[in-house]
Amino acid sequence: MSLKDKHIGVAFTGSFCTYEKVFEGLARLTEEGAIVHTIFSNASQTLDSRFGNAEDFVRKAEEITGIKPILTIPEAEPIGPKSFLDILVLFPCTGNTIAKLANGITDSPVLMAAKAHLRNNKPLLISISTNDALGMNMKNIGLLLNAKHIYFVPFGQDNPEKKPNSMIAHTELLTPSIEAALSGRQIQPIIR
Q1: Which 8-state DSSP code applies to residue 4?
Q2: Is 1 a residue whose pLDDT tops 90?
Q3: pLDDT tens, 13-47?
Q4: Helix (H), strand (E) at residue 152
Q5: For 137, which DSSP code?
Q6: Which residues contact 22 (CB under 8 A, 6 or more apart)?
Q7: Gyration radius from the chain CA atoms
Q8: How far apart are CA 81 and CA 59, in angstroms?
Q9: What confidence score (pLDDT) does residue 169 get?
Q10: Which residues are registered as beta bridge partners of 124?
């Protein structure tokens, strides 16, 4: 399946350590001809970290995609009624966002985008990055694994010795995961 001219939403949450991979993914998607719309959570657009400045991340997303990022809940809400995305990818998706999504909480631009997008029965793809996937958040991941129209980029433990509950998506599988989700399939195996 070609991603040319597909409207792909990429929603950033606060897992700043993965942003280098996220920007590589954005570049790949645009090179494949996708039209990429970015959405930033409140944390991702305001918090500076040792991995970089929030303002620079927002600017870089716009430079790569050529489209102004969505930064507010009111800007994200029209994703539902306008139904302009073919797929929305939460990339990276923190444990906090997973928990809120699983429990119907819509308090950020990313969560509003997810809620608005799902109302159209279109695929939502999650690229997890959380230190508590095998801890407190396992129940939320389980709920989302069983939800309609929600798919996952395959994931696994990233540092089992030092962070035994932590899991992260295999972002090199972003494109095949998107293609599978657009076809209504979960790429397998999910856990690698």
Answers
A1: T
A2: no
A3: 989 899 999 999 999 999 999 999 999 999 999 98
A4: strand 150-152
A5: T
A6: 10, 12, 91, 92, 171
A7: 15
A8: 27
A9: 97
A10: 88, 150
Q: Provide the 3-class DSSP secondary structure of residue 183.
A: coil
**DSSP 8-state class, residue 115:** H
Q: Is 39 exposed, middle or buried (0-12, 13-18, 19+ CB in 10 A)?
A: buried
d(CA 9, CA 112): 13
For 57-64, the CB contacts below 8 A with 24+ separation are: 57/12, 57/19, 60/23, 61/10, 61/12, 61/23, 61/26, 62/38, 64/23, 64/26, 64/27, 64/30, 64/36
31: its two tokens = 């090179």
d(CA 3, CA 13): 23
* Closest C-alpha to 91, from 29, 47, 33: 29
Helix (H, G, I), strand (E, B) or coil at 9: strand
Q: Which residue, chain included where needed, has tokens 């444990």?
A: 95
d(C-alpha 179, C-alpha 192), whole Å: 19
β-pairing verdict for 150-152 and 124-130: parallel
Phi-psi region for residue 188, left (φ > 0), alpha (ψ -120 to 50) or beta? beta
Q: Is 191 exposed, middle or buried (0-12, 13-18, 19+ CB in 10 A)?
A: exposed
Residue 185: CB atoms within 10 Å: 12
